[in-house]
Specification:
single chain, Beta-lactamase, eight-stranded antiparallel sheet, 12 helices, 17 strands, 28% helix, Diverse_Enzym_Activities
Length: 410
C-alpha cells in the first residue's frame, strides 16, 4: 500500500455512491459555518478503501488544505495502539492480565481510595484490591484525568500539574510515581472512569520490555505495519504536513489554539501511551486493517486472531455496560448498550444506543474530535480526522455513524 487512494468502486462493495455524498454534504456544513477547520473521512470495506474525502483547511490562517497525507494529533486514539503493544507482551508470556501493576511500578503498592472531604484534605482508606493490568486496559483502575473537573481527585491531579498535559520537568516514570501517590476514585474493578490508565500501561510496557515506549512501538508496531508517519512528534522535514490545532469558542467556532499547537512538533518529555501520538490517515488505516484482519496485515501478524477477538469483547465486571459503571465524566456518544474491552469501547446491543450500528463494533476517539471504528460483521472500518478541541463540542461522531450505515445497501 503506497499513496492513500480509493482502491475499489463503492458500489462493488455494497456502498451506494449517491448515499455516500450525504456524508460530505453534511460535514461540509461544519466547515462553512466555521465550526471545523477541515476534515478527512475514510471508509473501507473488505480491506479496500471505498470512500476517501477531504474538506477544508489543515491550517486556516495560511490557507493550507487538508490533504490525504496530512498529519494529525490523534490524542486518545493512541490508546488502542498502546493496548495492542501490551497484549503483544501478554502473548509472549511476559505480562499477565491479572498481574498487580505494582509488580512493575512499585509506587502503586499502597494505593488508597478517596472516601470524602475536599481536595485540600481528602479522606482515604486502603484499596481492597490492587490495580491489575486488566484494570488499566479497561479504565477500571480508579485513576482519573485532571480535565474532568467533576471530583475532588480531579482537582488534585490539576494541582500536581496534570490537566491537559504534564509538569514541565516530568517524564513518564515520574508521572506514574505522582499518580500513585494520589487517591483512587474507587476500588479497582468496581467502576469505570476514563483516565491516565493507558499512560501507566505505557510505563509497564517500558519496564517489561526494557525499551522506551517510543522505541517499543516503533520496533514492534509502526515499522512492521509500515506506519511511516506515526510517532510522538513530527520530523522537522514534515512539519508542513501537520494540521494546526483549534479549540471551540463559546459559540462553537474554531479558533486557533496557540497554547497547545506546539504539541507534536518536538519530542515530548512524557511518552504518553494514552494520548501522545501523531499519525496520518494512511497509517491509522493500516492499523485498523490489522485489527479487522484479526492481528494480521499483508502477511505481517502482530497478534493472534483469538487475542484480537478477546480484546474486543466486553470486559466490564458482570458484563455491565458503561451506563451502569461509568462515573460522571464526559462522553460524546451514547453509552447505552456499550461495554469496554481491552483498549476499545464495544457495542453489544445496538438497539439500546439508538444509533445505527452493529453488535461487535469496536471504536475509540481522540480529544481533537478524531474517531475510528471497526465493524467485523460488516467488514467495515471508518476513520474521521480533524483538529478541534474538545471532542464534545459538536455531535459529529453520533451523526457520522448513521451517515455511514445508511450508505450500506447490499
Amino acid at each position: 500500500m503506497g499513496q492513500l487512494q480509493v482502491e475499489v468502486e463503492a458500489a462493488d462493495v455494497g456502498l451506494a455512491p449517491e448515499r455516500l455524498q450525504r456524508i460530505e454534504h453534511h460535514l461540509a456544513k461544519y466547515v462553512t459555518a466555521g465550526k471545523l477547520p477541515g476534515w478527512l473521512v475514510l471508509i473501507a470495506r473488505g480491506g479496500k478503501i471505498a470512500h476517501l474525502r477531504t474538506h477544508g483547511a489543515r491550517n486556516v490562517e495560511e490557507g493550507l488544505p487538508v490533504e490525504t497525507d496530512t498529519i494529525f494529533r490523534i490524542y486518545s486514539m493512541t490508546k488502542p495502539i498502546t493496548s495492542v503493544a501490551a497484549m503483544m507482551l501478554h502473548e509472549r508470556g511476559l505480562l499477565q492480565l491479572t498481574d498487580p501493576v505494582s509488580d512493575y511500578v512499585p509506587e502503586f503498592a499502597d494505593a488508597r481510595v478517596y472516601v470524602g472531604g475536599p481536595a485540600a484534605a481528602p479522606q482515604t482508606r486502603p484499596a481492597v484490591e490492587p490495580i491489575r493490568i486488566w484494570h488499566l486496559l479497561t479504565h477500571t483502575a480508579g485513576l482519573t484525568y485532571g480535565f474532568h473537573r467533576v471530583h475532588p481527585v480531579d482537582q488534585l491531579y490539576r494541582e500536581h500539574g496534570f490537566e491537559a498535559g504534564y509538569p514541565e520537568d516530568a517524564d513518564l516514570a515520574r508521572a506514574c510515581s505522582e499518580w500513585a501517590e494520589l487517591p483512587l476514585l474507587f476500588d479497582p474493578g468496581t467502576r469505570w472512569n476514563y483516565s491516565v490508565a493507558t499512560d501507566v500501561l505505557g510505563r509497564v510496557i517500558e519496564v517489561v520490555s526494557g525499551r522506551n515506549l517510543d522505541e517499543f512501538l516503533r520496533e514492534h508496531i509502526f515499522d512492521p505495519l509500515d506506519m511511516r508517519d506515526t510517532g510522538f512528534c513530527v520530523p522537522e522535514s514534515e512539519l508542513d504536513r501537520l494540521a494546526a490545532l483549534y479549540s471551540a469558542d463559546r459559540q462553537g467556532l474554531a479558533v486557533r489554539n496557540t497554547r497547545l499547537d506546539r504539541v507534536g512538533t518536538r519530542p515530548p518529555q512524557v511518552l504518553s501511551g494514552g494520548g501522545g501520538l501523531v499519525s496520518s490517515a494512511r497509517d491509522y488505516h493500516r492499523f485498523t486493517q490489522m485489527l479487522l484482519g484479526e492481528g494480521e496485515l499483508e502477511g505481517t501478524r502482530l497478534l493472534g486472531s483469538r487475542t484480537v477477538r478477546y480484546m474486543t469483547r466486553n470486559h466490564l465486571p458482570g458484563g455491565a455496560d458503561l451506563t451502569e459503571l461509568a462515573t460522571g465524566t464526559f462522553s460524546e456518544v451514547t453509552n447505552a448498550g456499550k461495554g469496554f474491552g481491552l483498549g476499545f469501547s464495544v457495542v453489544e446491543r445496538p438497539e439500546a444506543g439508538k444509533v445505527l450500528s452493529s453488535a461487535g463494533l469496536y471504536a475509540w476517539g481522540g480529544m481533537a474530535s478524531t474517531v475510528f471504528w471497526v465493524d467485523p460483521a460488516e467488514e467495515l472500518t471508518v476513520l474521521f480526522l480533524t483538529q478541534l478541541m474538545p471532542s464534545t463540542t459538536h455531535p459529529i461522531r453520533t451523526e457520522l455513524q448513521p451517515l455511514v450505515y445508511q450508505a450500506l445497501v447490499d
